[in-house]
Amino acid sequence: MTTTPAASAGEPSATAATAFRGRIGSDIRSGHYPVPHRYRLYLSPSCPHCLGIALTHSLLDLGDTLPVTLLPAVPDTPDCGYAALRPLYEASAHQYRGPATVPLLSDDWTGRIVSTHAPDILRDLAERFGTRGPALYPAPDRDAIDALAHRSEQGINQAAQLAGRLGSDHSGYETALDTLLGTLASLERRLADRPYLLGPELTAADVQLWVTLVQLDTVHRWHLDAAAVQRIAGHRRLWSYARRLAALPAFGRHLDLDAIARRHHARCQGREAAGAAVQIVDWTTAHTPGRHVTPAPH
Q1: Angle, vertex CA 63, rays to CA 152 and CA 198, nearest 5
Q2: Using H for helix, E for strand and C for coil, what is the string for the chain?
Q3: Nearest to 129 by CA among 225, 57, 199, 68
Q4: If 0-12 CB within 10 Å is exposed, 13-18 middle and 19+ buried, where does residue 243 land?
Q5: Considering only CA atoms, which of 63, 58, 61, 205 is closest in space to residue 137?
Q6: Which tens digit of pLDDT belongs to each residue from 238-287?
Q7: Mean pLDDT of 6-29
């Protein structure tokens, strides 16, 4: 899992942010121990890492325990950060010069940043605050969850990003596409006899994969050729799984297609390819009655 949000194909990369890697410990000796109303999350609905954290926050029913501040879909500073977060970064690192980015977990008692590292934040929410929801990061499955998360990031997200950046006329395009399709095929086979990646119960691995599949359909396909997107869409069991998860309220309520589209088109400098016209999933209909998904603009 990466330490910073991955840019989409053709999107200019922001200056790497300082890695804040504080952890929520199990007792007072850790410095940051779990207590209600002490911490705050800063998230943007357009950021894939923020989407995973928002899903986890909802699945664990942490609304009354750990408040969330939502920031706009498109960063408002030239370095792809948020001006509203600049004071927190400057209070947490002497002479901080990087972008003030999300996701961010802050300590309201000290006015400083605990972590900007999405995998650590996800794990701490599940392990330190997850008392009312599913066991998203159970001890016996931690290695398997981490391995699946790594496969989703490397084999889907980064492979699709590389293919889109290279373009179909580049010699490395097919290699990147083969990596992507091979990963999708292995996950398709894994879901043949189970509802979730690790069996009958939803875990953090499913959260990570779902966010990755959303990113693949709503962002990366814009830079792939139509034939490649058709091959990606051919993994019907995998996309049925994605639609099934989208129907869960904790997932669907956080899927803001308009925000994702605005962030992508505001920052992306890559060439649009024919795959942009081949939508894999109609996310606006993959939901339960009464739940609304904000559609992307045409």
Answers
A1: 30
A2: CCCCCCCCCCCCCCCCCCCCECCCCCCHHHCCCCCCCCEEEEECCCCHHHHHHHHHHHHCCCCCCCCEEECCCCCCCCCCCCHHHHHHHHHHCCCCCCCCCCCEEEECCCCEEEECCHHHHHHHHHHHHCCCCCCCCCHHHHHHHHHHHHHHHHHHHHHHHHHHHHCCCCCCHHHHHHHHHHHHHHHHHHHHHCCECCECCCCHHHHHHHHHHHHHHHCHHHHCCHHHHHHHHCCHHHHHHHHHHHCCHHHHCCCEHHHHHHHHHHHCCCCCCHHHHCCCCCCCCCCCCCCCCECCCC
A3: 57
A4: middle
A5: 205
A6: 999 999 999 999 999 999 999 999 999 887 777 788 878 888 999 988 75
A7: 62
